[in-house]
Amino acid sequence: MTAQLNPRGDVAVLVPAAGAGVRLGPGGPKALRRIGGEPLLVHAVRRIAAARSVHTIVVAAPPGDVRAVRELLAPVAELIVVPGGATRQESVAAALAAVPPGPEIVLVHDAARALTPAILVESVAAAIRGGEDAVIPVLPVVDTIKEVSADGVVLGTVDRSALRAVQTPQGFRRSVLAAAHAAAVDPLTDDAGLVEKQGVRVACVPGSEYALKITRPFDLALAEHLLNAEHLPDVAPAAERG
Ligand code: C5P
User: pLDDT tens-digit profile of 145-195?
Assistant: First the structure.
């Protein structure tokens, strides 16, 4: 059934999904790779659409696949599909430009984090609503981290206690994200990086292990397993449904 988004919601979610996914090996755009018989993008959008605050979803699709992505997602949720750009940042900018007037909170969420629970969307949005200009979900770093030279020799050990692995959805006050994109010069791998450059404070909320970024063949296998496991969080916990 097509999910109806909340016309009184205050959140727009941008989904950059135009990457080639070369690290997954051959097989087409990453967002269209399948787990449980469905493309990653479908899983990601279904979970976003289950978050009660979401008013608008804009997907940036591979430029050659816009029509196919529109058809793919039409049964999942009512949303906007735009052609993505040559970099993730360009894809986000294209999606941002397509957000209609209304939502004052904008989240940016990678399609590759297909199993992200709706409750994480809500917790990031809630932090912006609570007064933050920019919010990222983070997890502690569990591995020891070393700095290594180009020829594979250890230069030093980094103190991991202050390090965090950053996930999406990243949340922003709409005007803050628009200003950061307008001022952007070099492409960065995330949007919080852009607003940091503007001197904006970026706050952290706890991330979710289910928001793992499906990047390599191992991640695809892990995601497939998680999808079949009983402990996968619901698409939307009951408390989050309107
Ligand atoms: O390449 P990477 O894994 O960092 O991509 C993160 C997200 O950005 C993915 O969801 C990918 O589809 C998206 N992306 C995009 N446009 C690009 C490159 C990546 O929308 N040109």
Answer: 999 999 999 999 999 999 999 999 999 999 999 999 999 888 888 899 999
Residue nearest to atom 1 of ligand 1 (CA): 19
Q: Is the pTM of this model over 0.85?
A: yes
3 state DSSP class of 138:
strand
- The 10s digit of each residue's pLDDT in 82-111 is 999 999 999 999 999 999 999 999 999 999
**CATH number of 44's domain:** 3.90.550.10
Return all residues near 107 (Cβ < 8 A) that are at least 6 apart: 11, 12, 13, 14, 121, 124, 125, 168, 169, 170, 171, 172
| Closest ligand 1 atom to Cα of 86 | 21
Does some domain include residue 159?
yes
Residue 3 belongs to a domain: no
Residue 101 falls within a domain, yes or no?
yes
48 in ligand 1 pocket by Cβ < 6 Å? no
Number of domains in the chain: 1
With CA atoms as reference, report the closest residue to 85 among 74, 97, 76, 75: 97
For ligand 1, pick from 91, 92, 212 the residue to mutate: most ligand atoms within 8 Å of CB: 91
CB-ligand 1 contact for 111 (6 Å cutoff): yes
Residue 241: inside a domain, yes or no?
no
Which residues form the domain of 44? 11-228
